[in-house]
Design brief:
Blueprint (H helix, E strand, L loop, with lengths): L1 E8 L6 H11 L3 E6 L8 E8 L1 H14 L10 E8 L6 H11 L2 E7 L9 E8 L2 H14 L1 E8 L10 H13 L4 H20 L4 H17 L7 E9 L2 E7 L6 E5 L4 E4 L7 H11 L7 E5 L5 H4 L9 E3 L1 H9 L12 H13 L8 E3 L7 E2 L2 E9 L2 E7 L9 E5 L4 E5 L10 H14 L6 H16 L13 E4 L5 E4 L2 E4 L4 E3 L9
Amino acid sequence: MEKYAFVARVPDQPGSLHKAAEIISCHKGNINRIQFDRRIDPYTVFFEVTSTPEAKQAISRGLLELGYLQTALKPLSFLKLSVHIPHTPGALLDFLQCTTALRANIAMIDFDDRGSNPDLLTVSLNLEESAAVSSLLDQLKSRYRMEVLEYDTSGKHLDDTVFYLRFAQAIRSLVGESEDSFLLRLLGDVNHIVQELMNRGQDPRVVFQSILLTGETLRDTRGPGFYADVQQIPLEKDLLLVCIQPPCGGNVFLLETPKECVMVDTGYGIYSQDIARVIRALRPGAMERLSRMVITHADADHCGAGGHYAIPALMHPGTREIIRVSNRAYGSRSQSSILEEVYTSLINLFSQFCPPRDVVLLVPSGESRRGRFALLATLDVGNHRIEVLEGIGGHLHGQIYLYSRDIGVFFSADTVINFGHLTPERARYNTLAVNLVTSVNVDSERAKEERKAILEMVRETSGQFYGQRKKCLVCGGHGPVSFLDENSLVPFGDIVHIPPAGEGCPR
């Protein structure tokens, strides 16, 4: 017995769902999930069914014979017309026979012989075949005086009677040409998280909008739309810290010495060329001296460009497993959450996820601890030793931290972030994930515990006072490198903005 997903487009009439369920039951399929909501789409129904492979084939045939099974996502054309029809009995019927013959679905029709234009009919149509548009127009032009008000093949003007088709076309514009079978599976996954969030009181429109805005924002901020905020901070005489904040997602850090350059986290895969361009402009020769990378955790905005660099990636074994199973909740008590699983698939798809290929696992070096955290390993960067600490699974299973008491620096990944100094655009982008998974932490209580423990260590760490610095630097997974002033994080040093190409950024 295996689980299968079906997307059905059923007639809006009594007994339609009953017929579909009857076919599934007849072949001994067990319906695990069904979702239909007229407020979203009055025709589309999602089923998940457990059955044998043979029964699955029989169910597919039965639904196909009914005309219910959706196996393709044909692009629809939208056509809005104004048509002058005669005042004769059956005139409207004659017009509708033309539209029906060419399988045009009426989305809107407006006619009133007592109105200001008593012979004018306004109608909006959805047509599956682009050739049908020409045929329909030819037929109508030969019989009526008419005007085309709108014609669109992008899907933007389709109404909600074909909501999921319109949504699929929007997704296709983000990820490029994809097979219909892939998009249908993706629609089923999206529908599943919509169902879950609706049961928690979430507005489905917010969910769909958040998904599309996530993809659109990433698409629009790469290449010519890419920008960054950069800090370059001397940690020691022979050790430079570079922090690059891309438009969306996590920071990319460099620890540069005269002999090597170590990258801490990579940003999204979709930004890989832009990040490399910024590094070459800021630190000539640094790309050639890249020796290894450290991945703090498995979220796409922290490891998703790793495969673009031909250097080994050091990571926790749990991080490798999350990448392997493509579920950011792996190893946590929310591991079975459909929200986390589908979100991981969506963000990996939109951000062109390309994780590291050459992986070096960081294994415990003993029973040593630093405060609340186990000492996982040590990392020598030039003449300096940095400790790798093992998190306790608040934000993500397998998350690690980098810490040096001597240098006075703590890489806190996504546990301690200077939210107060995120730009409005970055803050808005971060809220999209919250809309889809309700919390970016897989265990909120543990995340609070970790944050408290990190801030205690930061308060107790002062470093060597290089360059007049007297407080430990906090390198969060998002936002500027900061120091703790009383209970607030304050950005450290100068932050240089690199604008998009259209605003004068050298390319």
